[in-house]
Amino acid sequence: MKALLPALALILAMFITAGAAHAERVKVAIVPGIAVNLDAARVDALSQDLADALSTELEVDAVGGLEVRRQLPPEGLPPDCVATPACVADVAKRLDAAQLLFVVMVDSGGGGSVQIDSTWIEPATGKSASRPAIDIAVITDARSRFAAAARSLLPDAPVRPKPPTGGNGGGTMTTAVPRHFTKTSMVTAGVAVVGLGMGIGFGIRAKNLFNDCDKPSAPCSSSQEDKIRNTALIADVGFLVAAAGAVATAVLFATSGEESRMVVSPSVESSGGVSLILSGTFR
């Protein structure tokens, strides 16, 4: 039992470290405010994209879209909510968020282009600040535009570290293995040969027995007919075994090879203490 204590302590420390790292992430809610020429569905979709971009680029827990709208009053927020401390506090309580990002979305009418203005508020301290506007000329570029603007929207949030990339991560190429007959495939091939021989042998035997009885002068007795049927059945079983063995041998041979692949071990250790090994096949 004493020998297990260090291991248990290490596991507990890992969980505490992971929990502390998660607890440090500030929850940020994207709150839909005024929307001009945009329906609720489109506003929610853009808000969700913005929340996803913030969570991807920064060490924050961002929420938006329907998840936020469902917790707001059914009649919506008043237009001056962002300037009303009581309204801001109510929204923060409903969403259980430490920071709020009120967004105003305007369809500029230029082929679906949208301009988004945002105001950052920290209800606990009363701090607020206007953030730079985001212009989205093509709606399909929304995610990339939000990702590029993430740091300007939440400048105090820590940047999420990116996974290491490039060809100097200590990767090694494995050796290619050509297709070959393994021991298992040799066994299945042997079974196929035995089954084929059994099928042919008993098939010929059944044919000869049938020919001996197929004479008007010497008709087969019931016992002879049973013997012919049993012999033919054994021949059929032999052919089935041969077919199964042949198929198994072909599959084993086809899957016996292995192409050369790159195994990459990241040289940068993550803050959570988790290391990853990535492997890929080059065709």
Order of helices and strands: HEHEHHEEEHEHHEE
User: What is the global morphology?
Assistant: elongated
Strand content: 15-25%
Q: Which strands sit side by side, in order, in the main sheet?
A: 2-1-3-4-5
Radius of gyration: 36 Å
Helix content: 40-55%
CATH topology of the largest domain: Rossmann fold
* Average pLDDT level: 81
Q: Which architecture of the largest domain would the CATH scheme give at its second level? A: 3-Layer(aba) Sandwich
Distance between the termini: 51 Å
| CATH class division of the largest domain | Alpha Beta
Structural class: alpha/beta
Instruction: Work out the number of β strands.
Output: 8
Structural notes for this entry:
- The protein has helices at 5-23, 40-57, 66-69, 85-95, 142-153, 183-213, 222-254; strands at residues 26-36, 60-63, 99-107, 114-122, 127-136, 172-173, 261-264, 278-281.
- α2 links the parallel β1 (26-36) and β2.
- Strands 2-1-3-4-5 form a 5-stranded mixed β-sheet.
- It is of the alpha/beta class.
- The model is unreliable at 1-23, 267-272 and 274-279 (pLDDT under 50).
- The protein folds into 2 domains: 20-153, 3-Layer(aba) Sandwich (Rossmann fold), CATH 3.40.50; 183-254.
- α6 (183-213) runs antiparallel to α7 (222-254).
- The chain is 45% helix and 19% strand.
- The protein contains 7 helices and 8 strands.
